[in-house]
Amino acid sequence: MTPRPSQGFRKEPSAPECLVGDLGRFGTSSMGFVQSAYRCCLSLAAERASDPALPPGELRERARSTVLYICAFCNNQWDASQERANHSVNDSVFCRVLRAESTVCAVLNIDDAARVFERAWCQLEVLHARLLEKRLVLNSREGPLHSLDPAKACTLWTERFAARMLGVDIGRSCATDPEDLERIRAHAARCKLPSGAPGMPALAGAEAFNAVLRRELSSEALPFLAKAGDEHSVEEALRWGASPDALDSRHLPALTYAAARPPACGVAEVLRRWGADPRASAAAADAVAMFGAGEEAERLAAIARIEALEGGAAELFAPAAELARGALAAEALQGLREALAAGGEAAAAAAGKSP
Questions:
Q1: pLDDT tens digits, one per residue of 267-314
Q2: Pairing state of beta strands 143-144 and 68-70?
Q3: Contact call for residues 249 and 43 (beta carbons, < 8 A)
Q4: What are the distances in angstroms from CA 319 to CA 52, 153, 246, 247, 314?
Q5: What one-character DSSP code corresponds to residue 18?
Q6: Measured between alpha carbons, how far is 245 from 237 in angstroms, rounded to an integer?
Q7: How far is CA 10 from its chain centroid?
Q8: Which residues on adjacent β-strands are paired with residue 136?
Q9: 317: how many CB neighbours lie within 10 A of its CB?
Q10: Which domain of life is it from (predicted)?
Q11: Is 44 exposed, middle or buried (0-12, 13-18, 19+ CB in 10 A)?
Q12: Strand ranges (E), 175-301
């Protein structure tokens, strides 16, 4: 058991970039959380890099330098009332961190049970990230949902996962402290969603609170749901206001992944019915193959075919093609560096054996 500090942990964060509001339960060891956080930082560092051909070594260094504010570690757990400031939800420590100019996103860690969607404080983080126009990142043991390839998305997806995410409800939420739960629900009761919001009527109170949560979660998760082939959840996410043209971290639309799946999958038809850009289904298999596990020649050939498309499809896929070329260049450069390093070590070893 960790000894109780005499003064508590009162050190303020130094220029936080990401608020991590929940550790998740990735098995019995903290290693699962550490791995998920590192994969999240890798993904965010890659997205923020101006050069798509950034070598993996430099990318890892940037990921390690990312400043995370992890509530479970940074908040004063020995006197939580201090962290609530004047017992106002808006003055709680996570709100202050989210308001910081350096903070660019809020990260929700989703474990296999998807319990995070039932936690009242996590629900509140989603709301405030939206109000403060900070990005919301749904993170998993494999990394952010928007960065997963189709195979990992299918492995991670479960019906319970999607149901808890899209059915998030402040009325069924929980909190360790009953006073916290009462305070957050009172805050939700004052929420308003005016008419004119995408696909939503005017709502107030808990209904408005839930609608905002579901819209934000749906918008972030739609590409993941399309990759997993979850037709029902894709339609539900669109109903809550997700864009049918939502992109993942590779700049590929949800429809591209859906169209690349077997014909029996109905996700592509659902997205088209909700107005997805039809160009996204052109050469969908090639678009996905640009980032696949194939040989370099296969990936380069897929990129070339995408760049040769007509009718505006090449323009739609241009950012993804540039990213794919950059990724290949970075992998080639890393391979060259490793070969040179191995050659140097061999030469040094040979020199050491010389008489």
A1: 999 999 999 999 999 999 999 999 988 899 999 999 999 999 988 999
A2: unpaired
A3: yes
A4: 10, 22, 14, 11, 9
A5: E
A6: 12
A7: 29
A8: 106
A9: 27
A10: Eukaryota
A11: buried
A12: 192-193, 203-204
Q: Quick one: which of 194, 190, 13, 213 has its CA closest to 124?
A: 213
Q: What is the pTM of this model?
A: 0.81
Token pair 């983080």 in the structure block, residue: 125
Q: What are phi and psi of 137, to 5 degrees?
A: -120, 120
**The pLDDT of residue 350 is above 70:** no
DSSP assignment string, 114-168: -GGGGBHHHHHHHHHHHHTT-EEEEEETTEEGGG--HHHHHHH--HHHHHHHHT-
Burial 145-183 (b: 16+ CB within 10 A, else e): bbbbbbebbeebbeeebbebbbebbbeebebeeeebbeb
- What is the identity of the amino acid at 282? A
Which phi and psi (to 5°) does residue 19 adopt? -95, 120
Three-class secondary structure of residue 55 per DSSP: coil
Is residue 119 within 8 Å of residue 174, measured between CB atoms? yes
Give the tens place of pLDDT for each residue, 89-113: 777 777 888 888 888 899 988 887 8
**Which residue has tokens 């082939």?**
229
Q: In this structure, which amino acid lies at residue 252?
A: L
